[in-house]
Queue: 2 jobs
Job 1
Amino acid sequence: MSVASPVLGAFAADRDALDLLASRRLASCNFAVAIAAFGLGALMAVMQALARADLPVWFSSPAVYYLSVTAHGVLMALVFTTFFIMGLGYLLMRRAFGGLEWETLGWVSFWTAVFGTVMTTLAILSGTSTVLYTFYPPLEAHPTFYIGATLLVVGSWLWCAVMIRTWLVWRRTHQEPMPLAAHGILTTVVIWVLATSGLAAEVLGQLIPWSLGWVETIDPIVARTWFWWFGHPLTYFWLVPAYVVWYTILPRVAGGLLFSDKLGRVVFVMFILFSTPVGFHHQFVDPGVHAGWKLVHTFTTYAILYPSLVTAFTIIASLEVAGRMRGGKGLFGWLRTLPWRDPLFSGVALAMLTFAIGGFGGAINAAYAMNTVVHNTAWIQGHFHLTVGTAVTLTFMGATYWFLPKLTGRRLALRPLATWQPYVWFGGMMLFSLTSHATGLMGQPRRVFSSSYFGDEVAGSWRLLTGMSAAGGVVLFVSSLMFLAVVVATWRWGRPVTEAAELEIEFAAALDPLPERRPVWDRIGLWALIAVVLVIAAYAKPIYDLLSLERYGSLPFRPF
Amino acid sequence: MHVDLYERIWMWAASAMIALFLAVVAFSAATQAVHPPGEVETIDPLQVRIQGEFAAPGVHRGPGGETTVVVVAEMFRFEPSVIRVPAGEKVTFRVTSPDVLHGFQVVGTNANVMVAPGYVSEFSLTFPEPGEHLVVCNEYCGLSHHLMSGKLIVEEAR
């Protein structure tokens, strides 16, 4: 009996195709939450941009501004990314290993994370938790803010369990190297577990008992240390899945081959090793942490630059291979033959270009003499909107255009919008971010409702550029609406795909031959163990020193 | 492990660049004493305004002629709100907070430090030129965070 489907149209009878779509439901649900969170986060962003530029808009008040900063940060940096990465993990691991283990646990993960997200979002929107997404104590949010965030993380841990279990089961019967995409997703899992161990110490050990009144005081520097144990590897939790798209999907969409599969694995292993023992570079100007440890973390921070530099070569070389396979000639002629109208390709290409700028900004932030000039200025917001806000986000948007037909069985709708959306995002972000870098160097602090400072002359000199950055924010909002329109239109009204091949997920083939037996780079457990040793070496002594000080805790404050 | 020649060259170049960055940091730390602030000193936030140096914030001159600026950063002001320091001399800042986290940033200079309740932040700096600078809080501290500011006036050397 054929199964009628309004979606699959021409090959509605194809049972396999329907099964394929059904098997991707878990991924689809995670992506749907991610994109919904993105939409709400984008609305918060445009409100902030207009308020910050001192424009007389009706919603412009300190309470609304700081609430929108909190909501934007949490929804974009924590909710959108986490759900998107979980969705990508399900989609790619299923393809890489031919199935998922413990899928029911995946659904438990999903609903736990959704429940936590709703709880935290309500806490923020109620105005009782305007603590920004860094939630530094002794600013105290409503307990449901912390508990909801914890449930989101617990949900993501269950996702980690599904990923690890799927890999272990596959490994029992396979001696060959695992697909590179799976290697990257498992790298993401290891980074996330390492990162969130610090977050758990802060939230479970300090924030929740304190916000419930079980303990009276909290140590803000200990909390910051745990937070940044989490906060920097968090950025690689975002970035490595984007790299997975660059390494394993982009070269194929571009019509070429991956230049080096092997180096991809080396790069991922380096991220496992060095992403966590670096957190003090966020605390260069903190009291309570000895300058010597800040120097140690400076060294590890520069080490983490290396895998991204290797990636830059491998991916650009892969694109050159693609460009030449498409008939491109000459030193740079191959660039022109690349599929610049394909939104996955253009999204990722622009994301990479942006990451080159953002990466060098990061190298500047890591040098503590220069960090002093930019710490907590608008430069920082400029920096991370290039990295997570574009290198990662634009890659995820491009990936959305790529997988949407494979999840819905419908072809991309509003194609011209999809084609232009990455370029609009890139333009808006350059305007927003470069002006933020500039005003940061001029001394403008980040996260301020207004920076007029009672008519101060120097503060007045920031005004024009701040206005331009607000204009960039509006352009970004337009680009966000274009993205959301394409997603919704495809999901609701897209024309059904007609060939089963359109539903297939194909990874890029590599130029270099794969070894027959699993290489040392595939020993994720071993690398994770070494990473744990490095984290202990970087953190045990300074945390012990902090805890042995004669410390006076802080009472809670709610100045909002 | 076989790696393409050009890629090997690139990888060595990347290593050299990172080594150079680190060498600059290490060299300036070793020869020019460029260090991040790393004061490890605790204080009871409830006693800040009651006893000790922070009960009387201001610009103090030590017996050896050295200048120490004692600042309390609190919701939503700095005390003293106008700081006067001499040009061309080393000035030591000691800052703490009786309430939440704050930032102490002197716009247009290298003075930029986190201020945390329970801890004393300390750093030293020389302001080469006379002039007036805006002081801002750069760590979110509540709904009037953007109003928390002051002035630092660098005066002609005595």
Job 2
Amino acid sequence: MKRTLPLLLLVTLLLTAAPAGQTRALAPYTTWTLGPGKALYLTQDAYIPLDEIDLPLAAPEEVFLAPDGFLYIADTGNGRIVKLDKNFQIAAEFGQGLLQAPTGLFIDEDGVFYIADAGKNTIVILNKDGSLRKEFGRPSEPLFGRRREFLPRKLIVDARKNLYIVSEGSVDGLVMMNTNGNFIGYFGANRAQMSLKMILQRMFLTEEQLAQFVKTEAASPSNVAIDRQSLIYTVTAGTSRDRSIRKFNIAGSNLLGSVFGSTTFRDIHVSENGLIAAVDANGRIYEYDWNGTLLFVFGAQDKGEQRLGTLANPVSIERVGDNLYVLDKDKNALLTYRATDFAKKVHDGVRLYMDGFYLEAKPYFEEVLTYNGLFIMAYQGIADAYYKQNDYLHALQAYRIAEDRSGYSETLWELRNAVLQQYLGSALLALFGLWIASAVFTRLEKRFGWLEPLRQKARQIQNIRLVDDFLFMFRFIKQPADSFYYIKKDLRGSLTFAFLLYLWVVVARILSLYLTGFIFSPYPSPAWIPVETEVAYAILALLLWNAANYLVATISDGEGRLRDVVIGSAYSLFPYALFALPIALLSNLLTLNEIFLYTFSTQLMWFWTGLMLFIMVKEIHNYSLSETIRNILTTLFTMAMFLLTGYILYVLFNQLYEFILAIIQEIGLRG
Amino acid sequence: MLDKASFQKWIRREGSAYAFLSTYALLFFIFIVVPVLAAFLLSFTFFDTIQFPRFIGLRNYITLITQDDTFMKYVLPNTIQFAVIVGPGGYALAFLLAWVLAQLPKIPRTLFALILYSPSMTSGVAMAVVWKTLFSGDQIGYLNSFLMNLGIVQEPIQWLQSPDYLMTIMILVTLWSSMGIGFLAMLAGILEINPELYEAAALDGVSSRWQEIFYITIPSMKPQMLFGAVMAIVGTFQAGAIGVTLSGSNPTPQYAGQLIVNHIEDYGFLRYEMGYAAAVSVVLLLMVLFFTRLSNRLFASEE
């Protein structure tokens, strides 16, 4: 629901301005990009379907752009590798008779073919002319595992001619072999998930019992790619979305954090300049920059309508220049997509940006923003450019839009540092001077009594009830237990002030949401703050606590009256009332370096509030320690019950309302 | 004349007291006042132990607050986290164990007191023998092999070299060795309380041991509690060796276990920036002072 507004904006924008709008009619899908709040936003088409080239193949599994500039396809069903010329006609075929069902294909600079044959479960290496160079199957080394199967499906070869093989069902990751067929090791395994239940089982069950369970095993990677720096990328179907794409360094540790991915990825491709493209079983194509930031997602599944650009069973993706080629196994066809001007601008910007040419990339990103003002990656690039130019004020704004908290923090640090360097010395001296002056003043004041008239005035003001109630609040800092006793004995505190305090707590809650610095705010911008819900939550929590606590106390020997509970709870909230706003304001001056100060003070405030509530329950109801704990737990339980009941009632009345509405409509129609 | 007479009178009356005091005052002045003053003065200078200190005003302090990333990002949070958990935690632990021991007859009590007190004396040896073996980073370390047998971890964890765990382990070990001099003082304090107080309280309706603790034991031993609190605060802020001993390096891995004292050592004795180190130690002094004042406010009897 949050994204409706920007969406509307975008649609109007598209209708009025976008020059790419003319191509929209062509594409059978919509294109989305990552926008504010890390949500998907509709954007102009990044790629438009160019052609669907039917090929005389049988269920092909992989398309590969060889270093010689030609496309090669593993024609699985016919047991051969075919070479396409520039007009997509079959120019040559290789490996006939040698191959049974080639599913994985890789060609190195020398034109040597590396083929994973799923029919024979072997790796076949062919010379440039198609003659057999080497063929080997399951590694014989004991390290491979005694009962491990070797079911090669896909493979890549790095610069040192090591083969990284996707073996179906391999829980240890990619199988790493050299060209002689020696097993080197496993690489880049996914992790199995351990649940508490499994840990307990392992603790208490015997070996035989454990053997009866299905073993917990990690998902095996489903496809693999390599970039020019020999970094290896895998996609894994059947794992969580955010870990579905992984990028490994030479040590086999994942370099990508959380990625906006898919659970059904089929193939991945990394281009020369670091653009990542991946396709999933639903015909969606994902494009990322080198760091795994989503640029575009588009594509649609072919449900029998045969529209150009839809995919029935995509198995392989390849980038050729600005075009994307997707091999469709069911259609026996190669689908081509052409990058739009918009996408080209994005690519140019990203390319320069990834190479560290922030300043050079900036004009491209600025142009991208004229196409689509919600393209968050562009703001990131622009912000980094400003930062590099030492234009910190602009960088700060751009980082804020890009929602890059660490960039924002760095920039804020620079800005703050400039100010501090200039003024901190004098400020410290001034503080010291003030301290001495005030010490001297209090001494002299004590002797001469200059402020006596003021003090008398203050005492008069203190006699006003509300002011006294307010000052009473500070007594809780040092003597909480006694102060609650005062409330109980009607000595101090009043309902009026309690309600004022509640009001202030709610206001402080909302204000602190708005005033918290960007770095520490859970919301990307103030516009995202759901004020009504927050107010409702706060009021609901306060109401429920008071009601539940009073009700529970009445049936469990609590001495407090409703009035005591209400006033006591209000005063218990004083740490929040006093400190929430100052902490929020302070957070504007802090950077991530000092995040500790923020979290620590916030935690302290909440802990203090909790402690006050605890003491309140204990003193107001005159409970012992264990009774207090029991009362608080029951109160929380009652609050949950209230909520549940409220929800059930809401659902029931909703039904009733709809029922009556239906009757009225029925009467209207028939009568 | 008159002056001289009154002076002699004063000497006769109070001279001996001052004479007795003078030895201590002299030692205190030489070994406490002078170094603190020197550190305070040095903190306004640039001093590399070779050249004569050069006065640079407040620059050290400004650098500390604005430029020293490590200090703001790791050292200060670490120190406060460490102090907040180990200070009150160790304090409460010391009090609880002292209270438990106080319930025992004399001989087992003395024995247990000795056992509990020993970690704080022998922490260096115990650390090597007990904790380093327990948290050993290879797969035959006790904790690693235990967890791997259960299948919770797949490969051994470098407990003492890993920034994720070092702090937790430091806190654990320090809590274990926190039964120091404060503990002994509290034990003595509890034993000093007149048992008749408890009897009287029981007649007045005190029903549980918790109430006894809160209404009799703690109020009756406020001075010992204050002493214990001050010792705990000073102890936790001064603790620095633990992280370095456990991880075997200063700075600790990725500054995970870096406390203020380590920071001072780092700048003072590894980089020889004495002026800066002095500034950091003045800040440490101020922090200790602040928390001591706070505990004074909390525990001091109100007179």
